[in-house]
């Protein structure tokens, strides 16, 4: 069956030897948000496929209660479906994060997850999670 799976394209993509098919690096521009005012910051995400096979991937970012993906602060979770990344391909993304007039100063935890899929976005093959700290002054 393995031969026919490879011919007809039904095989699962293989992960990198270390387990994760992705290398993820992040940065924030500017480095911090101002509290008690409506302003935004960009989360810059660099995604690199380090596996030897194409990977269908998606990115999910989760924010704490006082921040949002819109100026009002209603949306706390954002999913971006990237599509298929070829081997050794890189993808750069910029995600805007907003503070409101109700955002107090402090350190906020952002959760970033990158998923590798097979067949469609409902089937997860592997994932990488990262926690980021955002400073609000």
Q: Order of strands across the widest beta sheet?
A: 2-9-8-4-6
Give start-end ranges of low-pLDDT stretches: 1-17
Number of DSSP helices?
A: 1
Structural class: mainly beta
Broad shape:
elongated
Nearest-integer average pLDDT: 89
- N-to-C terminal Cα separation, in Å? 59 Å
**Helix-residue proportion:** under 10%
Which value, in Å, is the CA radius of gyration? Answer: 18 Å
- The H-and-E topology, N to C, reads as HEEEEEEEEE
Content of β-strand: over 45%
Largest sheet: 5 strands, mixed
The counted number of beta strands is 9
Condensed summary:
This protein has 1 helix and 9 strands, in the order H-E-E-E-E-E-E-E-E-E. With 137 residues, it is mainly beta. The longest helix has 7 residues, at 2-8.
Outline the structure in words.
This protein has one helix and nine strands, in the order αβββββββββ. It has one helix at 2-8; strands spanning 22-29, 32-33, 39-49, 55-62, 67-68, 77-85, 90-99, 106-117, 124-136. The longest helix has 7 residues, at 2-8. It starts with a helix and ends with a strand. The model is unreliable at 1-17 (pLDDT under 50).
